[in-house]
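Notes from the pairing session

We agreed to fold both candidates in a single pass and log them together. This is the raw record for the first candidate, unedited. Please don't reformat it; downstream parsing expects exactly this layout.

Candidate A
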Amino acid sequence: MRSFSETWGALRGDGGFNWRTFGILVLTGLLSTLAILPMQLYGQDLGILLWLIVVSTLLNTGILLVVAVGIGTFLHDRVGLHVHRWAADAMRRNGLASILGLLSRALIVGLDAVVFVPLVQDAIIGGVVAETPQAPFWTGFLAGFYGGITEELLLRFGLMTLLVWGGWKLTGSDGVPSVGIVWAAIVFAAVLFGLGHLPATTAVYELTPAVVVRAIILNGVVGIVFGWLYWRYDLTKAMVSHFSADMVLHVLLPTLFP
């Protein structure tokens, strides 16, 4: 009978599991989860509830991170994906990732203003968007770490890696997963990324078909960019791109249009 380690290795393909990578990524994801709380809780007098919210957030997200990072650490190199690859042109590639994040977010902001805002006006709860206190720019800057790190660990490193591996195993392909399998995983993870933003959307809009399509397209476009960067380069490039995109959304736009 095979031992646990032998079974583990047979499933993965090489028997290794980098516990150091796993631990660093989980810890980084948890710290990044805390970074979004100042923006979410700004202007609220919570008292003792603040600590309950912090603990609850860390527990809930921590469980998801352990699962997602565990999957990613277990499978990513088996399917030809990478956490980080050192290269002489690393700065150029990070610059490219940042520019793609900025451009993709600017594109969907324009698309939203021209196409989707008129379509979802009737779905605003109460007919008027409620006035909320304008959070300082530094809270948006911190929130970018949640998007750039935590969301990428969950959606790209965990989910997309699992989808690539699952598609590869189901099709019985030799060698590495095909381009078609990878693209299917990129798009599917991007769609789920868009759907994951619906709970926040319900605070402002009723869930009409137009609102759902808006969330999928606007978030899915950037999700595809992040997934492509993870596949073409590595996870850190997806993180850099996501962080840059969130700087447009959470820092630049609120500063220009308070």
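Candidate B (folded immediately after A)
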Amino acid sequence: MTAGLLLAAGAGRRFGGPKALARDEDGTSWLLRSLQALRPCAEIVVVLGAEAERAAALLPMSVARIRADDWAEGMGASLRAGLEALTPTGHESVLVSLVDLPDVDGAVVARLLGASRGPADLARAAYDGVPGHPVLLGRDHWPGVVASARGDRGARDYLAAHDVALVECGDLASGADVDRR
């Protein structure tokens, strides 16, 4: 049982506005596209922050959403809020993704979920050998990630200090995030 956790709380300062509200030239919502990519997960939780009410209005009612009150601190705050919200659930792991990954889709998520074996898992998508997102965090690692997630580093420091399985997805996507329009 793996939950999907979509981090979509940032103000997108370099981008020029919250990425949760961004749309492609054809009108495709980044938030809804990212949500669709996580559909293989048992449950999806979206973490909102900047412009939370506007972003929440885009989400289907069936999707859980939480607000990271300290979202302005960076991705670490969003990650902590999401993991803390999922702690009371029975999920053995969580697949963490970002709203600004335009070509990461359900195939990437499904491949990463296929690598999931239980609460001790730590895995992440790799693109041509380069680690990226999404990241699979087994429940055993949640307390450590919450304790180390600060600023814009998210789980980076925690992952660097642990053995993380890389799941190659370069044949499915580039995994590139979008920081500028």
